[in-house]
Every structure is written in structure tokens, then in C-alpha cells.
Design brief:
Number of helices of chain A: 11
Shape of chain A: globular
Helix content of chain A: over 70%
Radius of gyration of chain B: 19 Å
Number of helices of chain B: 7
Number of domains of chain A: 1
Helix content of chain B: 25-40%
Strand content of chain B: 15-25%
Largest sheet of chain B: 6 strands, mixed
Number of strands of chain B: 10
Structural class of chain A: mainly alpha
CATH class of chain A: Mainly Alpha
Structural class of chain B: alpha/beta
Oligomer: heterodimer
Largest sheet of chain A: none
CATH superfamily of chain A: MetI-like
Shape of chain B: globular
CATH topology of one domain in chain B: Rossmann fold
Distance between the termini of chain A: 23 Å
Order of helices and strands of chain B: EEEHEEEHHHEHEHEEH
Radius of gyration of chain A: 23 Å
Largest interface: A-B, 21 and 22 residues
Distance between the termini of chain B: 72 Å
CATH superfamily of one domain in chain B: P-loop containing nucleotide triphosphate hydrolases
CATH architecture of one domain in chain B: 3-Layer(aba) Sandwich
Amino acid sequence: MNSLTKLRPWEKFFWPLISALLLVALWHYSVVWTGTKVFPSPTSVVRGLAQLIHQHVLWKDIADSFRRVAIGYGAAAIVAIPLGLTLGWYPAAYQVVNPVMQILRPISPIAWIPVAIVFFGVGDRPAIFLVFLSAFFPIVVACISGVSLVPPVFRRAGRNFGLSPIQLLARVIFPAALPQILVGLRIALGIAWLVLVAGEMIAVDSGLGYLVIDSRNSGNRYDLVVAAMLVIGLIGLALDIAFRRLEKIPSVRWGFRDAP
Amino acid sequence: MTEVVVAPRLTDAKLQTQGLGMVFQRDGQPISVLEEISLDVADGEFICIVGPSGCGKSTLLNALAGFIAPTSGSVVIDGVAVTGPDPRRILVFQDHGVFPWLTVEGNIGFGLSKLPRVEREKRIAHYVQMVRLQGFEHTYPSDLSGGMKQRLQVARALAVNPDILYLDEPFGALDSITRVIMRGELLRIWQTERRTIFFVTHDIDEAVQLADRVVVLSSRPARVQDVLSIDIPHPRNISSPRYLQLRDELLRQIGLAYDV
């Protein structure tokens, strides 16, 4: 099979399924052969998952996690998109802000946890703050590069048709940069989801991250720990798939390489 | 009773340049690109600009269109000096000029946002028909061929009812068969719409087939080497003795031997 080989429709589902089954089998037999008492087998994880669903804790934790991501990520998008467009549009402003941003950007949002607790105490707010921080920089950076990569031809055509600077931004620069911005938003959502789970292990008493840490703390229930991990993974995947669907919208599809 | 004094117009030219010059700074060194370009163009004339590659044809077109200010001399249209781009004069680019996030309709209607809806739709339908893109109204440019995209760009330009069209090697990126077809289409549109056209090309045949007059630029710094009237009525027979004579004259002016 070389890189040009195209998968047939049924193969697209068949081979991933096989690899997933193999992984589960490997997991199962590793647990059996090593005789570990700590790490759960797939069957006990499934039983744990059923127990979580049965006790109705899972839905509340998922809802709480979603709420925090929605608020933190939404706020980041609302602030970061106009800021990024402005910075991309005015190179002078970019030069002023860029050094500060480059210093803040490589700091893991996790390192902000103590600061977040000092600022916001315990509860939803520090977790939302961490999500906000983690999503903010990828979106700003994507907007800046999106704007700066807009071909000069588009700007000139816009000016030629008599657009004011505001109209040019709204009718030419923004739609031209939108595919890049969407990529930034998607990356930011992935990071936000990662950071949320870490944030929920501290300072809150609900959410999927809390479920992981609480399952260990209250009686070393590693079956529940792994069940919660699985749920986190599946939701992250679902969010990414949902976001990729946006790339198929006709007015942005041109900006993606594998556009049909 | 006061007497109204009307400033005498020097000529009845649509567009006039007087000693137009352009000097760029590169690595601190002044580079003269255009020198002493003086042109008089009548309303409705079809002007082709030819010259050796890199001589400054596009620079001249951009100066005429108001995108760059000349370092000496001026461009005067209808008696008024050009100070910037204007929707009454539209520049058509060689490539990537249409907006990929808008449909055919959206592109043609781009400069018409000030018109009432009904009027705008009528105008769009008219130009869809003129450039023969019926059936593609809701198609995005990524699904159009190169020739269709250029027709779309011409339609978008014509839709705002400009006096002058500047075409910067508009067919330069097309294959040779499409190019010949596009010439015919452009002539047909020009004969029905009668705009003043400036057409930059490096294709001698294209110039002799299209132009009323051909402006021959010298190599850099570009000066007007000659202005050749193409006194053959349309449709032009491209193997008539007069056609071949004019073509050979142009080839000679450019300094090309025609024995390959």
C-alpha cells in the first residue's frame, strides 16, 4: 500500500475498527498476563462506565465541562478574533504587542493555575479562565497570519471598488482570512479541551477532570478513572469532527487543500 | 450678470498623461522604471501596451489606475488629475483576481452594494449573460475553469459601469486555445459596451488582433518607443497582408527576429 492508494468506502470503517479491536485485545491480555490488580481490564472499564451512567453523575459532569469550555472558549474567540484581525491589519500595532505575546504564549496554561486561584478563588471561574487563556493565543496568532497572508490582489480589488477601510476589512480581509481563522479556532478548541481537564482536577468539584481525580481519591477506582478518560477522548474527537464539518461550508471550502 | 469662464480643455482626450515618470528606490538606489510617458487616448479607444518583459508595463497600468502615484508628471482623466483608485476605472488582474469566497453572482454584485436589490439583480443577470456564465450563477470560482474566472473578473468590472477598463495581461495565465476564444469574447463585449480599454500584453498577435492603437514601450526605463495604429476593421483577417505587415513591424520594434 503506497501513499496514493485510496481506501474503498467499506475499508474506511473496516481498518480503523480492526486496529481499535486489536488495541483493546492487547489491553485485555496485558492486564490478564501481568495479573495487575491496579490497572482495569476493558470489561471492568465498560462496567464502570455503565455504573457512572446509571448513577447519573456522568451527565452532570459532562454538562459542567461543556459549560466551562463554552464560556471560556467563546469569550476567547470574541476577544481574540477582533484583536487578531486588528494586529494583522496594522503592522505597527503588531510590533508593539508581539514581544509581550511571544513571552506569554509559550507559558503552559497549567502554570497559570496558582494565579487563577488567587484571582478567582475556587469554582467555575478559575477553570473558565484557564480555558480562555489556552484558546486565546492560538486564535490571535491564526488571525494575524490569516490577515497577513491575504493576497495583495484582493486588497487592491477591494479598494478599486471604492470600499472604505472598515468595508475592506469586513468584505475582503475577513472572508479571505476565514479559512486560516477556522484552523486556529479548531486548534484552540482542542487545546481548550485538554486544559479544561487539567483545570478541573484543581479548584472545582464537578466536571470530567474532577471525575478522573475523584475516582482515584475516593477508593482507587481505576476502572472509573479509565472510563472517564475514554469519555474525555471521545468527546474531544466528536468536537474535532464537528469542527471539521465547518471547513466544508462553500464560502470557506476554497481555503482547504483537500477541497473536493 | 457674471460671465462664467470655462477653463479651456487642451484636448478632448479621455485620458492624458504628460511626462509621466516613475522612480523606485531599491537598496537605496533610485531605479527609473518609467520616463516621459505622454499619451492621449480618446473615449472608447482600445489601447494595447506592449514591451519587453519587465519593462514596466504593469507599473504604467497601475499608475494609470491610481494604485501608485507617479514620481513626475500626472495622469489626467476627463480633465481631472488621478489621485487614487476609483470605481469608475477598474483594473482586471492576470490571475487570482476573483474572490473565492463569493459565488459568480456574489462576485459580479461585489461593487453594487449601494444599488437597490432589484436593480442589482438585474445588473448581475445582464452581465452573467454577457460573459456567458448562465447556469453558473451559484458556482464558486474554485469550480470554474481559468477562462471562466477571467470572464467573471471582466463581468465584475463591467457591472459597476466604469468608463475605463485596465487589463493587466488578463489572458496571460490561460492556455493558447482559450486565449484566442477570450480575445473574441472581449472584442464582442467591447463592441457592445464601448468602454475605453487599456490592455497590457506581451503577446504581439494579441495586440494586433485587439487594439485600435498599440503603444510600444522600450526596455527599462520604459519610454514610448512608438504608437502604432492598427487600421484594419474588425473582424480582422489574421492572414491578410496588412495584418502580417503590422505584426512584423511590431516584432521588429520589440527587437525580435522572426526566423526561429
